[in-house]
């Protein structure tokens, strides 16, 4: 069985090139495949391999105090979903290009835990009686595979398109508690921060994204699957791949 992981962490990185090289070498040593992204704002990882390899890699990574608190999300498959291993240094670990949406420059936007969100969706409002609007920060290709029931989806092709696409909806969201979400939490973290800095103080982010929600509470309130950017294509609420064979 292959262990699949997704993890990111916003933290100042002053040695991006050296860190990318070091993480690539460690992942190679543990026979992992996937993608390592490093930027001055942190790291973003999608890695898969054996249980021993995954555990060894993350144990070494978390020995670095900068990444000790990083959350890792796990799922499993029979197939190795990545063809190879690569590491890249980028300007942002997820490109947003908004100065008012950079996590190292501002306090983190408030979040809601999956269990609390599931309860809100079940009861039809948050704990203050406000209606809840789920805001999908992913692109159209992704939410075509599934999203939260009744979510506000935007016809965007890339994350940088989100601010303009959201503009026509802002007035209608003023009386709601808006919960931004994405696959693993990285985009909704930046989106929620930008929205709050841009005057939308009623916005929260879903802690851990859809994958974290599936891990903790399953698919309550969610329709369909969660698209992932590898050969598994999409995961159901039990974190089972849409495509899974015995290919190595």
Structural notes for this entry:
This protein has 248 residues and is α/β, with parallel strands linked by helices. The chain has 2 domains: 2-89, Alpha-Beta Plaits (2-Layer Sandwich); 99-235, Rhodanese-like domain (Oxidized Rhodanese, domain 1). Helix content is 27%, strand content 25%. The protein contains 7 helices and 13 strands. The strands form 4 sheets. A 5-stranded mixed beta sheet has the order 4-1-3-2-5, with helices on both faces. The protein has a 4-stranded parallel beta sheet with strand order 6-10-9-7. The radius of gyration is 18 Å and the shape is globular. The mean pLDDT is 97.
Which labels suit this protein?
Oxidized Rhodanese, domain 1; single chain; five-stranded mixed beta sheet; 13 strands; four-stranded parallel beta sheet; Alpha-Beta Plaits
Sketch the major β-sheet. 5 strands, mixed
What is the number of E strands? 13
Unreliable stretches (pLDDT < 50, length at least 5) are none
| H/E series | EHEEHEEEHEHEHEHEHEEE
Counting helices, strands and paired strands, the structural category is alpha/beta
Strand order of the largest sheet: 4-1-3-2-5
Strand share of the residues? Answer: 15-25%
- End-to-end Cα distance: 10 Å
- Could you say which overall geometry the principal axes of the C-alpha atoms support? globular
The CATH superfamily of the largest domain is: Rhodanese-like domain
- Tell me the radius of gyration: 18 Å
Helix proportion: 25-40%
What's the number of helices? 7
- Give the CATH level 1 class of the largest domain: Alpha Beta
CATH structural fold name of the largest domain: Oxidized Rhodanese, domain 1
Give the tally of structural domains: 2
CATH architectural name of the largest domain: 3-Layer(aba) Sandwich
Instruction: Compute the average pLDDT.
Output: 97
